[in-house]
Amino acid sequence: MPTKEDIWQALIARFPEPDDTDAYVPALYYSQMADALAGLAKVYKDAFSDAVYTIQKNGLTSEMYTIVEHFRETRKVNLSLVREDHPDIYAGLVHLDGRTAQSILGASVLFAQCVDAVGEAAVLSKAVITVKDLEEALGEEHAAPYLEVKRSHDHFEVAVR
Q: How far apart are CA 27 and CA 99, in angstroms?
């Protein structure tokens, strides 16, 4: 099997890096190569998935190779077991995450309850209105003056003038 270095050398031999006085030409080359290789990586990942599926579906074996399945673990507390075995700990730790509470009570009710609990000043420093909600309420054009737009770098692109 070819190594990453073998593939790199084959690509450089077939698609040499440009030696150009215009610095934009190599930038365009690297950008286009990165895009092409990302697309090619997806093709190989899909082909690998198909090959593994075929091996598993047909129960194929090899004297030299095996498929090793890697797992990602997630852990979740068994609430009913903790409640049963440790009711005091359960009572002290059980809660709803913010999204769940909001989905049950609604954003306005949850906001009002937080104001009741800690006061308006404490809540206002953390309060939000979503862009989507404001645009739905006022319309995109009328909401625009109320929006703060921040720009952050995403990526560069070489474009033809």
A: 44
Scanning the structure block, which residue is given the tokens 């104001």? 115
Asked whether 31 and 157 are in contact (CB, 8 A), the reply is yes
pTM of the model: 0.59
Question: Taking a C-beta distance cutoff of 8 angstroms, is the pair 27, 159 a contact?
Answer: no
Give the distance from CA 42 to its chain's centroid.
Answer: 17
- One domain, residues 140 and 97: yes
Which string of DSSP letters, residue by residue, matches the chain? ---HHHHHHHHHHHSPPP--SSTHHHHHHHHHHHHHHHHHHHHHHHHHHHHHHHHHHTT---SS--------------HHHHHHH-HHHHHHH----HHHHHHHH-HHHHHHHHHHHH-HHHHHTT----HHHHHHHH-HHHHGGG---------------
Cβ-contact 32, 40 below 8 angstroms? no
Tell me, yes or no, whether 91 and 47 share the same domain: no
| pLDDT(97) > 90 | yes
- The pLDDT of 14-35, averaged and rounded, is 93
Within a domain: residue 52?
Answer: yes
Q: 100 lies in which domain range?
A: 79-146
